[in-house]
Amino acid sequence: MKLTVFLLLALAALGATSEPQRGSVWPKPQSTVRFHNNGFVIVSINTFRFNVTLNKCDILSAALTRYYKYLSLEREAGYSERVNFRAGSNEVPLGEQPLSSNSSYRGRIDSLEVELMARCEDTPYFGMDEHYELRVDSPDVPLGAKLVAHSIWGILRGLETFVQLAAPSADGTALHMSSCMISDYPRFPHRGLLVDTARHFMPIETLHKIIDGMEASKLNTFHWHIVDDQSFPYQSKLYPELSDKGAYNPLSHVYTQNDVKALIEYCRLRGIRVIPEFDTPGHTLSWGNSHPELLTKCYNSKSPLGPMDPTKKSTYRFIQNFFSEIAEVFPDRYFHVGGDEVSKECWKSNPDINNWMRENNISGLYNKLESFYINKAVHLIYSLNMSTIVWQEVFDNGDTQLDKNTVVHIWKLGSFMEELRKTTSAGYMTLLSSCWYLDHLKSGGDWTEMYQCDPHNFDGTEEQKRLILGGEACMWSEFVDFTNVVPRVFPRASAVAERLWSDRSVKDIPDATQRLDEFRCRLLRRGVHAQPSRGPGYCPGEIF
Amino acid sequence: MKLTVFLLLALAALGATSEPQRGSVWPKPQSTVRFHNNGFVIVSINTFRFNVTLNKCDILSAALTRYYKYLSLEREAGYSERVNFRAGSNEVPLGEQPLSSNSSYRGRIDSLEVELMARCEDTPYFGMDEHYELRVDSPDVPLGAKLVAHSIWGILRGLETFVQLAAPSADGTALHMSSCMISDYPRFPHRGLLVDTARHFMPIETLHKIIDGMEASKLNTFHWHIVDDQSFPYQSKLYPELSDKGAYNPLSHVYTQNDVKALIEYCRLRGIRVIPEFDTPGHTLSWGNSHPELLTKCYNSKSPLGPMDPTKKSTYRFIQNFFSEIAEVFPDRYFHVGGDEVSKECWKSNPDINNWMRENNISGLYNKLESFYINKAVHLIYSLNMSTIVWQEVFDNGDTQLDKNTVVHIWKLGSFMEELRKTTSAGYMTLLSSCWYLDHLKSGGDWTEMYQCDPHNFDGTEEQKRLILGGEACMWSEFVDFTNVVPRVFPRASAVAERLWSDRSVKDIPDATQRLDEFRCRLLRRGVHAQPSRGPGYCPGEIF
């Protein structure tokens, strides 16, 4: 009554008698050199401190507090294992044997020197420098540890790596760390996670957990698909009626201005950008609850209202005002304007729309009507000194005048590699999501498929490849809400994160399986309820 | 970037302007008659009480406390909706209009008469009577409510129905209930949920949540697949070394005798049987951590140890002692002895096994070796005055002498309807699980497929059909643990629950979709984190 494949997995696990490698890093760093014949040191958690020369950097101060806590959690997991070891065996635990008997043991470290080589930046942005170098008991820092970076963002990534290097010894009596030097930086600058908060509302606490998981995965962009047909939880300053009438519940199922501000701040402290998406002209039915005049009246039986009405000046006045508010609330330079899945049926049924199209010499050309709207929307964004991201339909339409700062976001399945070739061949910066839809499920998990999808696997020149900025895992929320979204996102989004951070050559599935399992256990210890990724087992120190 | 099907769903939802029917019951009762031209009453929650004549019935006392709480939760959900209504509209809420203006409003009720017509039984058992009759403001109980049953189990099921009938009015100002008479009983006596606590350990708190969800779904059998190859969390009185060495962690990942006792009690109070499964002779690797002598030594490269060694007298002495303990700890008459997926490779490789088989004239007949073991195990259970449930392989083997009190459990996919025909044609009572494997996943959810699987859909006589006792949804835990098991079980197991409780004719998917959605919202209010089942939306009064 269990599939035989699991039995095989189980046997494989029992077959492996050697201690699995612990203290692995996810996503895998670009370069790791080990020293002293695979030497290791012990981190003295009780006396441990971060040594920092820098004074004023709120991101760093907050990070040190956070990462000290995370390091302590790793230590606590060890205690639980120690108990395990004791009860299950009469042998003397390894960590209590005279340490000199273990030739690769090097000694203790009790601090990490953190050196930021430039001024502390304030806000994460596209293309920020995330490079860092980390030395632990390397020849030039014997029995010490040092983290160096030219940006606070590199420091954040390096702190994450430092904590991941720490792992309880097999007997749980100490926290071990390899003697090594790590030189690391991301392969792609845009490593995102889309969360849809419109099909189901996600409470702020749930979003915080998701962002904690993003930080651990070195994802750097939270794409907030905040509103859609079904609900409008964003509480606008200018148009509070949008959420009063468009949210599932205008008090409990909304993001107030304070919520939004706090979420952006939570992300900023973790080096994570927040890109808002207010998808238009389709996917806007919830706007119509308070502003039906924005939408097209349909003269067919399917639905009373359709996409935004692109023929009315009042539509553009409204989005001008509304988008200006968004530009003020969200600090990132990028604004995702959507532009996907615009149904033409409603436009076709409406006589006023058709009259307008005749007057403007585009009779019957509904694609041109669509691009008329998108051009206006995109230029509105440009006028606000922001750059736009658009879903692929806007590019596919062909009629839209996009400047070369526009980013095209590929989402459709099927021939997405061919689509990447086309957009980059036309000179557009491009993001990939097609193979990373987290709402797609398979029995037994599907992270390996997501892991194996490489955004450079298309036929194109080096120049084209450079236009690939990265991609995003997408958590559409038709069938997830606060009850199940976190385990559905993690660790699958973390598999995508390694694809986007690590070198292209990192693709060893058995190795990744083991590292991802250790990584998901770290997430659990931090309270991020990532689901099991590799079959039967448990996490040392798991807290229920 | 969202599948078009969801857009259609959304439009459909917006298209439905009428208030969805609330106060629906899941699983659907056998018979519901409405009165007074779809009349309804208001339940006065603040003054509400249960009136009981019976004195000594601990199950009833506990149930009344619990169901009063559940009724209050429904009321609270109403408050949240009321706020919603107010903020979103300037109209006068319906509930605050003069009630006489609403012709179907009948008045208030402030109590439920609970009448148990027989003595209060102590422990749930196979075939227990679960029939009940419930009247709310029916012609013979005007502006009153009465629940009658001939067993405490019927009373429990009726209380669940009573609370589900209650629903906040559309404006949230009151708790409504239809004027109706419900006569109800289950279609099948065995309606189970299997939970595997060996591939991943499930904390007791998680199991409690699952049992809460079972109670709401009127499931009556918790099949505890407690140990397996990967771990042995059951802490035995006789052989504590089994969990000391076989559990993932001998302190934190075990079920102590107190845990087991408390879980059985938690179930008893809810009219839920607990059937233990100690699967042998396969799926026993974890037993070998402390008792390697029980297992067959393999002389092939795959694994050092295989299934139990059926040729040694000591094996039978051990299980005799161990099963006697289990018979004492678990009060139910049924013991699930497993018997599935016994690999013959290890037996084939072992010279001692082959010698023994020669001496016993079954050279090369490994199926006969398997049935030799199973016969002994099954007769051991009989001698303990218990009945056995076996996985289908034991029946398929053909050589096993099973008495007609043995229940065969069908789990394999493929031609399971044909298998049902075979086992019932041979005169065996049968359980179905093949189409209800909760570890099988599909994007967008798959409850409708599980819902449509009917255990009587095979070619057989009425007599054969009567041998189908019901079935079980199975939550194998290779890829679930405390992080995701509850939303994966519910509400999908509840879909199976309706198939096993309600009349065969209940199969209207659109109606079930709406009722299941309301049901899952009730689960959320009780703290059971069931996942969304029908696409975008939210639950009134959902607590994050």
UniProtKB/TrEMBL annotation, chains A, B:
Disulfide bonds join C57-C120, C298-C346, C521-C539. It catalyses: Hydrolysis of terminal non-reducing N-acetyl-D-hexosamine residues in N-acetyl-beta-D-hexosaminides. The keyword Flavoprotein does not apply. Keywords: Disulfide bond, Glycoprotein, Glycosidase, Hydrolase, Signal. One of its GO terms (cellular component) is membrane. InterPro entries: Beta_hexosaminidase_sua/sub, GH, Glyco_hydro_20_cat, Hex-like_dom2, HEX_eukaryotic_N. The active site is at E341 (proton donor). GO terms for biological process: carbohydrate metabolic process; ganglioside catabolic process; glycosaminoglycan metabolic process. Its EC number is 3.2.1.52. Transmembrane segments: none annotated. GO terms for molecular function: beta-N-acetylhexosaminidase activity. Residues 25-165 form the Beta-hexosaminidase eukaryotic type N-terminal domain. Residues 188-503 form the Glycoside hydrolase family 20 catalytic domain. Residues 1-18 form the signal peptide. Belongs to the glycosyl hydrolase 20 family. This is Beta-hexosaminidase. It comes from Cloeon dipterum.
